[in-house]
Amino acid sequence: MINKIKSILEDEDVNEYKIIETRTSSEELFLIKKDVDMTRSKDVQHFEVTVYKDFEEDGLKYRGSSSFNIEPTMIEDEIKKLIEDNIFAAGFVKNEYYNIPKINSDELENTDSKFSQNELSDWMPKLIEALYKNDNEEKGGINSAEIFLNKNYKRIITSYGVDSSYEKYDGMIEFITTWKEAEEVELYKMLTFSDYDPEYISNSVKEMIFLAKERANAKETVKSGKYKVILRGAPVKEVLSYYVDNSRAANVYNKVSTFELGQLIQGEEVKGDLINLTLDPSIRNSVYSVPIDDDGLALHKICIIKNGKLQRYHGDLRHSYYLSTEATGNIENFVIEPGSKSIEDMKKEPYVELVAFSDFQMDSTTGNFGGEIRLGWYFDGKVTIPITGGSLNANIGKLQDNILLSAEIENENGFVGPKAIELHDVVIAGK
């Protein structure tokens, strides 16, 4: 099929093209309590094609593009018609012209994963065992779960020199933990992984059962006001992704971000910890770890922010060309260096610690973040109580000169960084 698509493309009036072939084998399993409810296996193949068409209008040069899918069952005439329609459509897309340089095809190594040692179906019982290892409480546990494990093959072929392929694995477990006291409460968790790490799975379940228990015992919220807030869990990654998004070439070019090279992004007088951001395409156990991006650019570890100063932009070929900066390629994993303050030290003075929200949102354009509080703890200097209800509303731009990063780190969902962050004078709308 690849040769057929290439042959048609090379006979057409197209300036450049890109073909991405993906093949995915998957095992899926659905559980109610500890009983298997349904299993499913799938093998799918896709071909995504992008065509680039150069044209001029009113003395301005453009490079339009159009992306579309070709199904493996299509005959040659159908493929030819689809390609011609999309070349025509690309001629109306007024993207400012950008050069696509010649890229050498790289020899790529497959992602190192224990999942490669056996068939996918052989791993499902092991994942179930890890999932339920710490599910041994009487009043609560896993109510339902879904397990997905994929073996992925990707090949990228371009008119500008790329013909590279690699294999990788990715898994996902979604589960709901419940706890029943006077009433029953539920908490949702999604785990992603690319390697077999049973301890990571079982420890995550243990933590979620504990949080469900604490949520069941949380009866009140704090009074409205400003507090020292300690964020833990998924919100930490969401807040710190602000620096990834605002240093992205596409966002700078589109004026979504105002970050400038050499800028001290936290200001001149920082009282807290300085941000150090690195993009790393090969983080262990991350589903986002890949050797090249979809343009065929080889990916490498790169420092973006050092000691609070923006060193470089990052991103794709097109937007990097517009900013006259070297393209790093699209790297999804990011690393934030930890701070010097331990979580234990963060808790020596009154605080509100928040770990679960019903809908936590981070708007990287404005810097606003927050959500409705599902679970946290309030320490008044003497007593710690679980809390629920109320909402957090804050802006990272107003708080970042006094942000403190924990010395403890976590590695989850393509993020390696502080396990907790401490923020001051954060508004909580409570009772």
Overview of the structural elements:
With 431 residues, the protein is an alpha+beta fold. It has 2 domains: 2-217, 2-Layer Sandwich (PmbA/TldD fold), CATH 3.30.2290.10; 218-431, no CATH class. Helices cover 21% and strands 39% of the residues. The chain has helices spanning 2-11, 76-90, 120-132, 198-217, 234-246, 249-253, 317-322, 343-346, 396-399, and strands spanning 16-32, 35-57, 60-70, 140-158, 163-180, 184-193, 225-232, 277-279, 302-306, 309-310, 334-336, 351-357, 361-362, 368-379, 384-387, 391-395, 404-405, 409-412, 415-418, 420-429. The strands form 3 sheets. A 6-stranded antiparallel β-sheet has the order 3-2-1-4-5-6. The protein is globular, with a radius of gyration of 25 Å. The mean pLDDT is 95. This is Metallopeptidase TldD-related protein. It comes from Clostridium neuense. Residues 224-429 form the Metalloprotease TldD/E C-terminal domain.
What are the key terms here?
6-stranded mixed sheet, alpha+beta, globular, TldD/PmbA_sf, 2 domains, 20 strands, PmbA/TldD fold, 431 residues, 6-stranded antiparallel sheet, 21% helix, 9 helices, single chain
